Amino acid sequence: MDKQFIVSYQIGETLYLNITNRCLNKCAFCIRETPTGIGYNLWLNKEPTAQEVLAAIKEPTMFKEIVFCGYGEPLSRLDVVKEVAKSLKETGAKSIRVNTNGQANRYYGYNVVPELVGLVDTISISLNAQNAATYTEICKPADGENSYYAMLEFARKCVGTIPRVILSVVEWPGVDVEACSIIAQDLGAEFRQRKLTV
Ligand code: SF4
Fold it and tell me: Residue 21's domain is classified under what CATH number?
């Protein structure tokens, strides 16, 4: 598929921001792996600067939520997330969410969660599996099973620091949804089960 420069796209009352195509995982159900994605071509011909992201958000206050999401891992561009979120907050954006694979602390080598305080209202972390072996099989993380434990530790750091923390799973063969919901509960996070829709 040709690469384009779609930095923001709207679904319902939510605006999604597509700031990178990079990710250390290769999940079996990733929309990047499907021929049609979500209907938009989100393959970027270059990664947008913070200014280019902000330019792609015409009226931040009109959305219920603005979500850093995209065809990749948004926190692989932590500085851009922080700069854009700060500016959106200043202009009155109602709510800001980051969808993440939860591996930022491992990626950067320190706890980045405090840097998101006051900028991010909700963090949705892809739990995806009830144990490291299943996670590795489904998500094929670059760092193997350590990535699963890093994701759980990241979630622990978020709970109590970021106002709303969600752990999510996609219904997929081998995923024990009930066991995943207990992990979320034990961590003090909300739980979201998603059906694969593409
Ligand atoms: S973590 Fe998200 S962006 Fe990365 S491969 Fe999995 S589904 Fe795709």
Answer: 3.20.20.70
Whether 1 is in a domain gets the answer: no
Taking only the tens place, the pLDDT of each residue in 77-95 is 999 999 999 999 999 999 9
Low-confidence ranges of the chain (pLDDT < 70): 1, 33-40, 70, 197-198
Task: Report CA(22)–ligand 1 centroid distance (Å).
Answer: 9
DSSP-assigned letter for residue 24: S
Q: What's the rounded Cα separation, in Å, for the pair 150 and 156?
A: 10
Q: Quick check: is 2 in a domain?
A: no
Residues paired with 50 in a beta bridge: none
- Residue 163 within any structural domain of the chain: yes
Condensed to tens digits (0 to 9), the pLDDT of residues 59-76 reads 999 999 999 996 899 999
Can you give the residue range of the structural domain that contains 176? 8-194
* CA 101 to ligand 1: nearest atom: 1
Report the amino acid identity of residue 162.
I
Nearest atom (ligand 1) to Cα of 72: 3
